[in-house]
Amino acid sequence: MHETENGVTIGGLAAAAGVGVETIRFYQRKGLLVQPQRTYGGVRRYGVSALARVRFIKSAQRLGFRLEEIAELLKLDDGAHCDDARQMAETKLQDVRLRLADLQRIETVLAGLVEKCCSATGDVTCPLIASLQAE
Predict the structure, then answer these.
(1) DSSP code at position 21
(2) Is-contact 65 52, C-beta < 8 A?
């Protein structure tokens, strides 16, 4: 982020973070990012700490954390609450593992249905459609 001594505008912050301006505003409404005071010229200026915070939020989202969870992680930002952060990560890891198991089950069922569809000949009912109608 190329920053003047007074910081960057919301557009500059968004560009540097790789997000849209509305994302910055959304984070502000959710209380994840502080909205700076307007300068004498009426423009809000964001510093490098705002960029670091947006990048933190995006990184946490890529790991599957919801915004509510990210807000909790941000409260632990002082580094003195490693156990709390670890517990949150363990909970998220357990959730990811459960979702992976569900996805593997779905993959197995879909693979079987696709195989049935490929082997069906003539004027038979589509095995995939028949299976979904039976649910």
Answers:
(1) H
(2) no
Give strand pairing partners of 63: none
CATH class of 1-75: mainly alpha
Higher-confidence residue: 120 or 48?
Answer: 48
Query: Three-state DSSP class for 39?
Result: coil
Contact 54, 13 (CB under 8 A): yes
User: Residue 86: what residue type?
Assistant: R
Burial 96-123 (b: 16+ CB within 10 A, else e): eeeeeeeeeeeeeeeeebeeeeeeeeee
Q: What pLDDT, in 10s, does the model give residues 5-64?
A: 568 999 999 999 999 999 999 999 999 999 998 888 888 899 999 999 999 999 999 999
Work out the angle at residue 35's Cα, subtended by the Cα atoms of residues 33 and 37, and round it to the nearest 5 degrees. Answer: 150
Q: Would you call 87 exposed, middle or buried from its count of C-beta atoms within 10 A (0-12, 13-18, 19+)? A: exposed
Q: What is the pLDDT of residue 31?
A: 93
Total residues found in the chain within this entry = 135
